[in-house]
Amino acid sequence: MTYIIGFCIGAILGLTGAGGSVVALPLLVGLLALPVQTAAGMSLGAVAMAAIIGLMARLRSGEIVWLPGLYFALIAIAALPLGSYLNHRLPETLLLGLFALLVITVAVRLWRQATDQPEATAVVRAGGGSAEVKPPICRFTHGKPGPRCFLQLGLAAILAGVLSGVFGVGGGFVIVPVLIFLTGISVHQAVATSILVISLVAGSGFVLFVVSGGSTDLNLLLPIAVGGIVGMLAGTGLARYLAGPTLQKLFAVVMVLLAIGVLIQTLVKG
């Protein structure tokens, strides 16, 4: 079961460039009955390993935009402790309720994009399609980096970092649209840069989880990580064949069903 969970996480991350971490928490809580705090830490570890493999596959593509990516990652990492603090202070039922709300919000965005901009869903993937490499700009300072652009990127990075610490998500569903909107880079560049940020943020989050005394069962984490790596490679390879509006809508529905299922299970236990 752990290999299958890891494969699902990696495959979704490979197919979409984001989103694998969103399903990690419901799968770990619902199928393995892990506490939310432990599941969040395990999720970060598995997502980080899968993202690192994805990052290595993109290093030669020239699509990674390093300056905004590293800036975003550093700010998000700095915000991780706040998310971790909230993770350990908030009741489990409240955490899952907030997570369900987060997942539904992301799912609605994905569904609306697939409906209103079906052409975009064909390229917002880890693979497939031709890459269009464009230099980063800032939409709000006449095309040049400026304080307003860095401030807005920083605020989005803080949100991604807090979400990572609380829920064990990499934040790709925040990173990709923010990079596209604020910097004007291509979708392929945003996805590749998102993988860079996810690997750094999720990896740092997992280290913070371990240092703070989180439960790290290697017999559980390693199979999930191995499954995630295989899933990432498979998802990246299949992206050009499976990407599209229908797949994105299906993914949105699965996200909502997973989150609601785990929430109901927790409420029944309570």
UniProtKB/TrEMBL annotation:
One of its GO terms (cellular component) is plasma membrane. Its main location: membrane. It is found in: Cell membrane; Membrane. It is a multi-pass membrane protein. The chain crosses the membrane at residues 36-57, 64-82, 94-111, 149-182, 188-211, 218-238, 250-268. The keyword rRNA-binding does not apply. Keywords: Cell membrane, Membrane, Transmembrane, Transmembrane helix. InterPro entries: TM_pro_TauE-like, TSUP/Inactive_protease-like. Belongs to the 4-toluene sulfonate uptake permease (TSUP) (TC 2.A.102) family. This is Probable membrane transporter protein.
